[in-house]
Amino acid sequence: MYQKIIVIFFFLASTMQLHSQVVTVENAGKKAMNNFNDGIEYVMQADFQNALEAFQKAIEAEPNFVDAYIKAGAASFELQNDSLTLFYLLKAIDLKPDHDVGVYKKLAETEQRLMLYEDAGEHIKLFLEHPKITGVTRRNAEQFLISIEFAINAVKNPVEFNPVNLGREINSEYSEYFPSIAADNSVMVFTRKIPQEGEANMRIGETSLQEDFYITTNNNDVWSASQNVGKPVNTRLNEGAQNISADGRYLFYTLCQSPDGFGRCDLYYAIKFGDVWSNPENCGKNINGGDWESQPSISADGKYLYFCSTRPGGLGGHDIWYAEINENGTWNKAVNAGTPINTPYDEQSPFMHPDGRTIYFSSNGHPNMGGSDLFYAKKGIDDK
Predict the structure, then answer these.
(1) What is the reported pLDDT for 381?
(2) Cβ atoms of residues 72 and 57 within 8 Å
(3) Cβ partners under 8 Å of residue 134, min gap 6
(4) For residue 212, with 0-12 CB atoms within 10 Å meaning exposed, 13-18 middle and 19 or more buried, which class applies?
(5) Looking at residue 294, what is its pLDDT?
(6) Model confidence pTM above 0.85
(7) Closest to 287 in 3D by CA, of 334, 342, 330, 218
(8) Closest CA to 89 of 61, 112, 68
(9) Who's near 178: CB < 8 A, 6+ residues apart?
(10) Alpha-carbon gap, residue 198 to 85, rounded angstroms
């Protein structure tokens, strides 16, 4: 009798262990693996929604399928569903903490987006403890840790920030961005993404959109209803990332896929005579190259043009460059802004303050709160 009870006990114990054991791609069942492989195919097509659904089906078939949890977390991360990412990646670690060290980095990135900086710091440290994390991967993780430590300190020392919506005269159902204001605050130009001409009555999700410039004037701190800048500046191509000069007469901007361009996106300018804009002109080969140039900012004295480029010769990624104008009105060859502004990562959206000494820009290469943050740098007495 007792022997029979003992046999039954060990049978039940082994069955429970079988059901609770961790499942990987090496021992997953056929149904789970079919769904898992479907998810991989969707990922290769950058179809992360269907990928997530496939990985979820794999988890339904095998509730302890650690690889499916990891992939579901990665798909959720791409979909920017941070809470779901957190759930799947924490479950993967709970099932098998040492299965894939990359989970800790992805988890830390998710926690950074959720502003869970303390947790992010703990998990990126665990990632760095792994002996196989070397080279560029280690350097990137170390840079990430510096940003996390900066964020933890910044949260403890908040800065007041109270943005004010500019209202319906400026904002619309479409996207408005890249505002640029004249030095006396009298004129503002911004980019709006609107339906292609002839498709205005179609819903946004059913039509192609293009970028155009809109302009508004300031009267006693009240902005007028914005108006399309119109031809010849706006075309059926994408005009964007503009900067209006301090006196409001020169408009420097980005134009992509232009027939007379030197690269994918080039810098152009137009001059305002009264209420009429001139035909735009390319800023020339000393500024534009075979790569991507965008986001110009002209200094208040008109002598320097700052912009963002992916051209060779920089420190890496997107860098900030600048060119000086000659006495004859042409631009000298562009020069990289160098360190400490540029890093091996991405620096973009330069804006030179009217004081001519302070530059504002975005970067994900300097210690930050996550993603790209705003920074500024000042020239010293030696102009460096």
Answers:
(1) 54
(2) no
(3) none
(4) buried
(5) 96
(6) no
(7) 334
(8) 68
(9) 190, 191, 240, 241, 242, 295
(10) 41
